[in-house]
Amino acid sequence: MRHARFIHQGRIREGIFEGDVLLDEQGSVVPIDGVTWLPPLVPRTVYGLALNYADHAVELNLEKPKEPVLFIKPNSSLIGHLSPIVYPAGVSYMHYEAELAVIIGRAGRRIRPDRAMDHVLGYTIANDVTVRDFVGNLYRPPIRAKGFDTFGPIGPWWVDAADVADPHRLAIRTYVNGAVRQQGNTKDLIFRMDDIISFISSFATLYPGDVILTGTPAGISPVTPGDVIEIEIEGIGRLKNPVVAEGASS
Ligand code: MG
Predict the structure, then answer these.
(1) Peptide bond connecting 156 to the previous residue in cis, omega within 30 degrees of 0
(2) CATH homologous superfamily, domain 1-37
(3) Distance from the CA of 183 to the center of ligand 1, in angstroms?
(4) Which CATH class is domain 39-245?
(5) pLDDT per residue over 217-232, tens digit each?
(6) How far apart are the CA of 188 and the centre of ligand 1, in A?
(7) Is it the case that residue 176 has pLDDT exceeding 70?
């Protein structure tokens, strides 16, 4: 099942998507054109992984990490499907990062890898928008680079874990203005989701509503105001957001 949050007629609603039809909590059909999409859940903590695809590490001239490289993505950065990503004034290189996002459904500490996937509620799509200007060893972890308001598009909905046969075999693609810019597959994750969940929970309790961004494959490139970014993950959906200049009236 696909679970969505949206604003309809001035109220925040939760609903489900069945086929091409959006239904509210009462099962009434909601016209899609009339809704504002919200992040499909209100996360507790959003963990991110840097350098979790070998080909992406290569494109950045960095070594493959020996353990997961973590950061926290501020919840204040999160936006829903179709909301604009604001390009900060004065920066030189902003890019998208297509990522499978894992949603935790069951709390745990020191979770064994072979039990880790039992703690997963579902999956969604995230765009880990980043300003390269602020990424460098001096700035690790890259909280500012990835933490601007609007730098966390997520959605359009989340999908039950039971509906995703193999989360480690999903094609990922990013389109900018309709042209493919990034392609990958979750089979190429350096640290698989079970290992990531086990690693984080070795020091921090994972709670329901925590979200883990699993990293992006090779193929990052600059985007500028006026561009439209779409991220597609096989079996999950397609997340679309335009880029607008800071200060532009909307
Ligand atoms: Mg990322």
Answers:
(1) yes
(2) FAH (2.30.30.370)
(3) 14
(4) alpha beta
(5) 999 999 999 999 999 9
(6) 15
(7) yes
